[in-house]
Amino acid sequence: MNRQDQLTGGRPRLRLLAAAGAAALTLTAGLASPLDPAPQQARAEEGKNVLTVAVAQSVDSLSPFLASRLVSTSIHRLMYEYLTNYDPADNHAIPGLATKWAPSADKLTWTYTIRSNSKWSDGKQATAEDAAWTFTKMMTDPNAATANGSFVGNFKKVTAPSPTKLVIELKKPQATMAALDVPIVPRHVWEKVGDFSKFNNDKSFPIVGNGPFILTDYKPDSYVRLKPNKTFWRGAPKFDELVFKYYKDGDAAVAALQKGEVSFVSGLTPAQSAALKSQSNIKVNDAPGRRFYALATNPGAEAANGDHFGDGAESLRDQKVRQALFMAIDRSTLVDKVFQGHAVEGAGYIPPRFSTYYWKPSASQNLGYDPAKAAQLLDQAGYKKNGAGKRVEKNGRPIDYRLLCHATDPNDKAVGQYLKEWFGKLGIGVTLECLDNVTDPWLAGKYDLAFDGWSVNPDPDFVLSIHTCAALPATPKDTGATDNFICDKKYDDLYGRQLTEYDTAKRAEIVKQMESRLYDTGYMNVMAYPNAVEAYRTDQIKSIETMPKAAGNIYGQDGYWSWWSAVPAGSSGASSDGSSSTGVIIGIVAGVVVLVGAGAFFAMRRRATAEDRE
């Protein structure tokens, strides 16, 4: 998830609402057209090509052990290698820090060969010991497991018999062993950290890493600067500098794109997309997205120790009430009017882009738009209208749900107005609470409804794990890995089964049962699957890799391909229309490993988190 943009706000854990959907991502490349004096001046002064990614999301943490927002986890993919990566063409697992991997006959021991040509940016060799230390730290320190603990929960022991050999012993088979989306950090740097819950990795620069980029500077709520790693084993990036710059206003970022002051913008509204399509030197990319856009209900915030907290509406603990809200929402209207066709109607938890795990309810199960049936469900649940036409809680107070929305997301605000109208006809009030920081009230359980969304990875394990009982915070004062305080035994049982199932078809069937369970309980109302709508200047970016290659996104990929592959205009290489190879795939195909006894499920990977979570 990256994961995660979920809801938003505060640091370590999940909440990135559909903020990512509105994220105005831009890149200011130093290569401007002759008519753009400002970029030309910047290029003349600096003498280098700068690619600036403007984001509508601030970094929650530069520590890969804490971060959950999409912008943060995307940056970590640039800074650190994972054991495996995902082919930009079709998402199948390919070498990362590990060149090959294989399980034992009983699938309880996995052996990885660690490449010998990866160095940390301070000159030290990256070894299996770094990976073993990273995983073991997550296994033994709860604070180090904040962001990615679900990956190691089933680990029994991790060792490094040699610099190029990593061995992971499992308690039971685990179907995600080629999809461990965990940044491997340098032990010699991180073993000096004391409290992992407080260390944000943002005080000393440059930050030691072994990915395609090296982080050189950071200012909270402002920018992140990275330079190419000239010794990166796959080859150095083409631009001289990559900058992620925080933009709170998406219109300002689009205006900058039009002026040539930035090179790339993501999260375009339909109006912005339509306007940019007619302009020269600008290419709009509109592809099926990897995110879902949902309405989450507060089921009653509870910690693992059984303590309840927060102030969510009592009525939302009733399944019939939650299902009534499902049936009061006209998804087709949202797709047509809000997304204006740049999305498809939602249903299951996994977007249709991931066809193996995509699920839709049967005709008899479907909670389609039916206001009359919704009203009947509310009546049956005992929430009838009073003399003023308002439905009331059991305490006699009129129902008025607080709906958390992200202040920078136009979709949240537009959909919120429709929900106010539709729920109002049922006698239910809605108060939109659009905040810059929705994380704090979300983590505190002080909300009733909230716009929610995650970028889903080829392997759905992570986004499935955040709804398990194990993801709840230990106590109300702690921060858990939970998305929405859901704890359901049937769902948990299914989660355990899918994690140990190596057969792809059988695992997919269990995952679909999990999606069905989430749908029936009504905790997560997936309203739409938005397209990835983004644009870049072809007079500044000559070519850039989408993922998947045929029809995919540029920002928020399951890897580092877009920024690593980007070629400045005027350079030799592929044209922006992809008419010739950028070389991104060269060397990747050659390095593909034949997986031993594991099956095609290895084409998986996790999140995409957060304020779009990844």
TrEMBL record:
Subcellular localization, as worded in the UniProt entry: Cell envelope
A GO biological process held by the record: peptide transport
Pfam family, one: SBP_bac_5
Keywords (A to Z) from UniProt: Membrane, Signal, Transmembrane, Transmembrane helix, Transport
SUPFAM superfamilies cross-referenced by the UniProt entry: Periplasmic binding protein-like II
PROSITE patterns membership: TAT
Gene Ontology CC annotation, any one: periplasmic space
Spans through the membrane: 584-604
InterPro entries: Peptide/Ni-bd, SBP_5, SBP_5_dom, TAT_signal
Top-level lineage group: Bacteria
Residue ranges occupied by any Solute-binding protein family domain in the UniProt entry: 94-465
GO MF annotation: an example: peptide transmembrane transporter activity
Secretion signal span: 1-31
Chief location bin: other
PANTHER family in UniProt: PERIPLASMIC BINDING COMPONENT OF ABC TRANSPORTER, PERIPLASMIC OLIGOPEPTIDE-BINDING PROTEIN-RELATED
Family the entry assigns: Belongs to the bacterial solute-binding protein 5 family.
The protein, known as: ABC transporter substrate-binding protein
Record organism: Streptomyces fagopyri
